[in-house]
Design brief:
eleven-stranded parallel beta sheet, homotrimer, alpha/beta, flat, about 350 residues, 5 helices
């Protein structure tokens, strides 16, 4: 797709310093671009790459414009402006509606005419699929699931019975939505499974990464609100609610019956304990453990960063006796006071 | 399914304070119930919900009975009694035996007449499947695997060759059992793969959550004993043995050649190192690291809980020098002693 | 497969102390072996097993030879020598070339004549598959993917469009390669998805464990170099590069735009933050967090090992105030100095 710099500037609302008739073919990275490419600069670390870039134009902040050797698209938030340009130059892939002959559609399924159902996919009884939705190969949609319009389910997605998906939802391969929550009760040393009778509601404009799992509620529904973006290999337990426009990075684990607010950012490899509430606008940095509710917006951390192994061994020996160490200090302080 | 309160009281062995002929349709949550619902109360946090509940009856402890505005089922362990009631009101889904026409069954497979094999499932050579087992769509059962009676494999489960599954086992979508263990030997800087010749034995009444993986043993078998309940996205390495009635929560990682005892509870996002033993009745709280064997029953922890980011930064700066800090204290103590 | 001890000694380059015409059927563990078995001894913990072993021969170090009650294969690195023997006795499974009738091959796919394509697999447009490659059941290979020769894709592997796989690559079930990287830009509180236009390149002799995910690059490619061995449930973000002969253990999380050097060993359940570099020959022990670049080879750690829950509670109370504690010590030191 070829567009002019002027068209891009208008689309992304940036100030063009350059020839508006120059043609752009696609986006590229700073250090690996060629004429016809549009690139972006936001991180001082890559200043040398900016100075040498062969791209036709660069999206950047006003302060960085003077260092740029080529045409510039000056924007307040260059990363966002670049994102918009990349979307403009790479519209969603089109597909021909229909069903692959190997797909298995239940006679009772209600699939809009302009959908595509991929090879070896299985669409169960009374499933409803909205207009313009693409179901890739190997997907399994169980009975009574409802999928909105203009969704894209990549290969090997599994939606279990009664799960509801909104509009423009993007599900990557290996996603499992609606498996039973982990509900067990102890009966004299044996575990009794508790029926998981709720479902999962995924609202509009949600994206869910590869091999992420979201369990159905025990009695009520597990809910993921509008605009939530979830990375790969995330686990979300039963009855949990994820608020609008929250982002959850890779391999984070959210236990059951958690309420996460709006516009939160949950770092990768974090773990959030069950039955707690996290208010709006909370940022949890990577690999943090969240055992209790968070009632104030802000940034929270607990990840322990590496040191060389020798220092770590010594620190850990002390750490195991930290309470004793603190008591010792208290005693010394008392004695000194005398 | 409609039953009377009297029938439920008898089934779950609870004392009924109310009309035994009242009809119950299903279980529901305290705050979102209606006449015809049975609910339960175990957590003081939900006292306000109890006082306003519209349910027909509530399962609770004797001490809480006076606060309950409606019929009560008084039980010693109300959560367990509720679990039993939920199971009574929601018996396992029935299915019509047979094979979907798109399923691929090897001529040498031995599948009991009353099983169901779902759409696009693949049943390999000499596989044996016991009476009353349901294999959902998209499952792949490789050669010589053996599945017991009354199991349920949800969609997209993969069992590799020779894996053995007991009776009444429940496997959720994306489960992979019997992939090669991670066995490599270093040969002058290159890794040589070591053949993984063992298998996996899953015994009776085991439940395994979505996208959990259990590797085959190197020489012997990986074994999961009776009644073990494993949540989603758990990883269990080769040669590991999980004892009876142990529960492993979401995203826990158990390395290879680990022996876990009976009735243990492994918290979510925990990691257990290889070649260690954990005795019976051990509780590991969430996000803990277990580098060494545990020889005594009890509760063990290492997860580091979050603080606000500013405090965390300061604490971490000190933590990196914890050994130095402890030495300083020792010196001060010595000096004070003089 | 039956071979003589003499043939094995020659194959693994070990010194035979025993009868070279003795026949070996397969490898087995020390404590569970029988005549006809070859086993190995590398860990003093298993000395009692060595003394009682019923195996026909044992691979071990020279120093341990005297304790061995049966024939010995003495090697400098007994574990490596055992690995070679196990490979010699268990050559790769053969298969008959062809396609299962239920496989779906696009007319434009270019599949070598001696490949096998399993039941219900889907091979997309213009896919290229090299000589001697085995694609198991339920695999989905999207358009324009390229797979080298002598690869083995177990069941239910998903390769997305344009992904490139080298020769002799082994992919376990549930692997997803080439899903979109987690690229989002914030637009006034809403997340805008950034198109992920790169791909994934997996080079030769790589092994990737069950349910591991490797995302496609945003603009450039995500790259896994020759000889890398990745365990189960690992997540590798977009644009990341993993150097030759690096090993990544189970459930490790590598964020985006990370460069990992050659011959590194990343411990299980570790998490590596985005946009950092780890030099060659770095060992990260299990459950460590790596927030910054590592510029020197060596062993690094941060995992916090468990203590009993009571000690942990007390230590954590102190830990939350570690900075205050350190300040108190500084004050006491100052005062003592006066």
């Amino acid at each position: 797709m070829t567009v002019t710099l002027g068209e891009i500037a208008a689309e992304i609302n940036a100030e063009l310093q350059g020839d508006p008739t120059d043609e752009i073919i696609n986006v590229a990275s700073l250090h690996n671009s060629a004429p016809g490419d549009l690139t972006f600069y936001v991180n001082k670390r890559y200043l040398a790459d900016l100075e040498k870039t062969r791209a036709s134009a660069v999206v950047l902040a006003a302060a960085d414009a003077p260092t740029c050797p080529t045409a510039r698209l000056v924007a307040t938030d260059p990363y966002l402006a670049y994102a918009k340009a990349a979307r403009f130059l790479n519209p969603a892939t089109q597909f021909n509606p229909g069903s692959h002959p190997s797909a298995v559609l239940d006679a009772g399924a209600d699939v809009a005419d302009d959908c595509y159902i991929g090879a070896n996919s299985v669409i169960g009884e009374d499933v409803v699929i909205g207009s313009g939705t693409y179901i890739g190969p190997g997907c399994i949609i169980e009975a009574n699931a409802v999928i909105g319009s203009h969704c894209r389910l990549h290969a090997n997605v599994t939606l279990l019975e009664r799960v509801e998906i909104g509009a423009r939802v993007l599900l990557h391969p290996g996603v499992v939505i609606g498996a039973d929550g982990y509900g067990i009760a102890n009966d004299s040393g044996r575990w009794l499974k508790i029926p998981q009778l709720g479902s999962v509601i995924i609202r509009d404009d949600v994206e869910i990464g590869a091999n992420t799992t979201i369990d159905r509620g025990a009695l009520e529904n597990t809910v993921v609100e509008n605009g939530v973006k979830i990375d790969n290999q995330v686990q979300i337990g039963h009855n949990t609610r994820v608020g609008e426009h929250t982002a959850i990075a890779g391999a984070a684990v959210v236990a059951g019956s958690v309420t996460i607010g709006k516009r939160c950012m949950i770092g990768g490899a974090s773990a959030i304990s069950g039955h707690i509430e996290i208010t709006d606008d909370v940022v949890i940095t990577g690999m943090s453990g969240v055992p209790n509710s968070i009632k104030e917006a802000g940034v929270y951390s607990s990840g322990v960063p590496i040191t060389d192994n020798r220092t770590w061994r010594k620190n850990m020996a002390r750490f195991r006796n930290l309470d004793e160490l603190a008591r010792k200090i208290a005693r010394m302080e008392k004695q000194a006071g005398k």
